[in-house]
Design brief:
Length: 711
Amino acid sequence: MPDPSTYRPAPGTIPADPGVYKFRDPHGRVIYVGKAKSLRSRLNSYFADVSSLHPRTRQMVTTAGSVEWTVVSTEVEALQLEYNWIKEFDPRFNVRYRDDKTYPVLAVTLNEEFPRLFVYRGPRRKGVRYFGPYSHAWAIRETLDLLLRVFPARTCSAGVFKRHNQIGRPCLLGYIDKCSAPCVGRVSAAEHREIVEDFCDFLSGRTDRLVRQLETRMHDAAEDLDFETAARLRDDVGALKKALEKQAVVLGDGTDADLVAFASDDLEVAVQVFHVRGGRVRGQRGWVVEKAGDAIERDAVAADTGDESELAILVEQFLTQFYGEQAALSEGGAQADQPANAVPREVLVPALPRDVEGLQQWLSTLRGSAVQLRVPQRGDKKALAETVERNAKESLAQHKLRRAGDFTSRSAALQGIQEALDLDSAPLRIECVDISHVQGTDVVASLVVFEDGLPRKSDYRHYAIREAAGDGRSDDVASIAEVTRRRFLRHNRDAASGGGAGADGGDQAPEAALDPQTGRPRKFAYPPNLFVVDGGSPQVNAAAEVLDELGVTDVAVIGLAKRLEEVWVPNEEDPVILPRTSESLYLLQRVRDEAHRFAITFHRSKRSRRMTASALDSVRGLGETRRTALVTHFGSVAKLREATVEEITAVPGIGVTTAQAVLAALAEPTSGQRGAPSTGEAAADVAAGGVVVGDDVTDIGASERTGHSRE
């Protein structure tokens, strides 16, 4: 355990200016980020008597191995830099308010040529506008069904849209006038986008204008004796008013505001946010997080200023992260001109943060106009704030009921693994390797990571095995050894290149975990506590020999055999038998099964690409990027085959010679096309979808939340 005195900056070296500071552990990972009006006063508070610190603060300073800082000119700059670093490094001791992914939202893909409306659950993406979250998915579908008769926008998936575009007939919704059928050209892209923008305006609260427009058109149609059109417009107005009835007015003055409330105990805090637009509650969000960084920040603030208001610190942390994230998501694409969707004019909080003026200035910068932070004192806003607080308390109570059993079982599982394997400490980080192939062909491996008993999908990795037997024989032992060597060679190489000066402070801070080009942390520059291989004694011994060869002595290695679920330890004749009903065995099985699933997914992708060779692959000088550009531009290989040389050369990067070679290749039947219509088209379309398989470590999709790097 590091001693804080070993990395304490020399007296007088810390500036008294405002700035942002980072604590790193001995492996170079950023574990805590904070800001201060005076760096000298704030950082000195962390190096007081360890016994006098809050337990969480004490754990942080004894986990850290170095501290560094960056001086800024204003407190607003410090606020922005702190947010950016927390988002980039994801420090374990900072409170992180991640978006609740259990509530459904209504998504509008404004980043597409023909935007789509659909129910969605998951992380937010740039260029997509979200309405909600709603309590139930059926509520969104019911509202959407009502509004489609007024705003007949596309709701189908990309595959359905493409298929009906090819056959030249709309789907059922197109025939019953609940879709304007842009797939068959009934409306242009501009006309369809106008429909979608009117839909977004309605859900954003600008309802009166749309209702008045429809009523005016209805009266005009009636005066022209076009009673059929008037009746349809009358029904449209009724549908809009029925949708409005589902959103009760809570603030009669038409306020645009967010109301934030907190409920906490000694360990966790629940946050609830109500989004009120035009006086109506348009959405609700909730988080429950550990109060790790709150205790650390409160300790430092109390030592620095004598003020230790817990609620004020929580408010500042939440507003910084939440609105910084919302503003980042609304940047670019069709949302760039709508900053008000990210930050409202008014934010009602239970307590004002310490630096309320600086935070208001920062929020105003994000919005582009003035933003006010207030504590409601009376009237409708006070009553609604109390409702939000009741929701926060209920959310915390429900969370504690759900999580009590899960947290206890995970703690028991990690403790049981430590005792069964006689480890020095509980394996808080577990990595597992699995091999997948079909009779020795397309051999791949997966590496999954579990931290604190939960999967960390951002650290998952794929490996394409280089040394697989070429005669069709499977050699899992050699493959396990190769993956182990590549994984820990990377760790040794990064560790050997470590060492450097801390920012602005002259402190020695290990840079092993930083990428020298991007400055971002390398996620595999530090070892796991436990390395699990899928297999028995031969596989375990192979992995252990590689670790001995590389001089890695602080990683425990085991194997989990599928047949009897035995745990094998290197150089032991008999396995360790865990009780069938033990939480420890359940956790190891879950880790092994996740590695198996991840390897199978990658293997199927690689095998599919090999079996569906595209006719475009044979074109000399046509790389993957330009192949993808061609298929994306024309929509399919079939349409590309019908194009002329002049049309093909309109694609950036394609010359006349290449265009002629493309047409020549598509004119000749390939082996993949015999017996099946255009197998090459399928492969090219897959390439256009973004599935890229490299010769090393591969990330196959954002759905898995994986990273990718070159080993």
